[in-house]
Write a structure and sequence with these properties.
This protein is an alpha/beta fold and about 400 residues long. The chain has two domains: about 140 residues, Aspartate Aminotransferase, domain 1 (Alpha-Beta Complex), CATH 3.90.1150; about 240 residues, Aspartate Aminotransferase, domain 2, CATH 3.40.640. The longest helix is centred in the C-terminal third of the chain and has 21 residues. The chain is globular and about 60 Å long.
Length: about 400
């Protein structure tokens, strides 16, 4: 009660992997030396391995939005026809970037909590055969929903268009077969499932997408994909890199490889499943019930209660930082994350805390109801299989 450890339970930044933090202390290293080149090459190779792609992977000192911006400015020209899938705050960001660069965007918008369906993308491509790009979020973190990336890719693949996927919270929380599905650009960020602080963005680029770079005419300077590929092939970044974060990423990638990317994804999926079971057990309503993702679970606040009250109670009572809704959803939903360095012990505590908060704020629940739901998922996934194995 008197000692409260801060626990970060948001969908970015996420809890940090301790050995990665220790690696950052060795950042008094010059970035044009062979010692650093080894670390940089290790990051590029490690990213390709855990992302499961043979495509080129580039790395930038920026937030994930920097890589989103780079994709548009390097691969498209003013007036290019594109399709933008908008199912939340981050889909709106794609639309804003497209508008900023003068692209001719056909925007498919669905209500928050829903997802753009593959047939809607197929229809948009049929209406405009000259479409050169389709932009979508794998995981729309503002609502807790996840798009059917495989089916959307199947609609895009036979066309001349490239598919650009913001997988900043999708990587490490859902299967993404980059090469097999034909995902032309896949964007990630350091502060999500990769368990290190914000400041690094990375992206895979298919051969089909690289051809777009040859004819694109939009201006760019810092975010120059061709320049970054040439530098990366030599084991360097084009500009001064975020040295400490590169060292942290190299360490975190070793951990991801040790765990196994499929297991990292399964961990997020199990935590999300358990959270949904707990929420239903407590009589609350999921926000994106039709297509829930595994990066974060969005929950509707009880009737008559602002979700900000729940967010503040988590912080003030327990030092736990969860996320409010974004944009028009602020005050209506709260979000509990599952990506990266989260485990079931974290979730047991979160749901127990939620039960206390609900009771303290006039929404009566039976103590242990939500926690028991989480325990049952854990037992099914971890206890019973081990018992059988023995």
């Amino acid at each position: 009660m008197y000692i409260k450890k801060q626990r970060l339970l948001t969908p970015g930044p996420t809890p940090l992997y301790p050995p990665a933090l220790h690696a950052m202390m060795a950042s008094d290293i010059h970035h044009r030396t062979e010692d650093f080149r080894k670390a940089y090459r290790a990051c590029l190779a490690g990213l390709k391995e855990v992302m499961g792609t043979a495509h080129d992977v580039l790395l930038f000192a920026s937030s994930g939005t920097g890589a989103m911006d780079a994709t548009v400015s390097n691969l498209f020209s003013k007036g290019d026809k594109v399709v933008v899938c908008v199912a939340g705050k981050f889909g709106e960001r794609w639309a804003e970037i497209a508008k900023a660069y003068g692209l001719d965007a056909q925007v498919i918008t669905v209500p928050y909590g829903q997802v753009v369906r593959p047939e809607q993308v197929h229809g948009a491509l049929e209406r405009e055969p000259a479409t050169r790009g389709v932009f979508v979020q794998a995981s729309e973190t503002s609502t807790g929903a996840a798009h059917d990336v495989e089916a959307i890719a199947a609609a895009v693949r036979p066309t001349q268009a490239i598919l650009v996927v913001d997988a900043i919270t999708g990587l490490g929380t859902m299967p993404l077969d980059i090469d097999g599905w034909g995902l032309d650009v896949v964007i990630g960020g350091s502060q999500k499932a990769f368990m290190i602080p914000p400041g690094l963005a990375f992206m895979s680029i298919s051969p089909k997408a690289w051809k777009f770079a040859d004819s694109a005419t939009l201006p760019h300077y810092y975010f120059n994909l061709k320049k970054e590929k040439k530098s990366g092939d030599a084991g360097e970044s084009s500009w001064t890199p975020a040295t400490s974060l590169i060292l942290a990423l190299a360490e975190a990638l070793q951990y991801v490889k040790q765990v196994g990317m499929p297991h990292l994804i399964e961990n997020a999926q199990l935590l999300a499943e358990a959270t949904r079971a707990a929420i239903r057990g407590l009589g609350l309503e999921l926000f994106a019930a039709a297509a829930p993702g595994s990066s974060v679970t969005a929950v509707k606040a009880p009737a008559g209660m602002d979700s900000g009250v729940i967010v503040k109670e988590f912080r003030n009572r327990f030092g736990a930082i969860i996320a409010n809704g974004q944009g028009s959803m602020k005050g209506q939903i709260f979000r509990i994350a599952h990506l990266g360095y989260f485990d079931f012990a974290d979730l047991f505590a979160v749901i127990a805390e939620l039960e206390i908060i609900l009771n303290a704020n006039g929404f009566p629940v039976s103590y242990g109801t939500g926690v028991a739901a989480v325990q049952r998922i854990y037992e099914r996934a971890a206890v019973l299989p081990q018992t059988v194995a023995v």
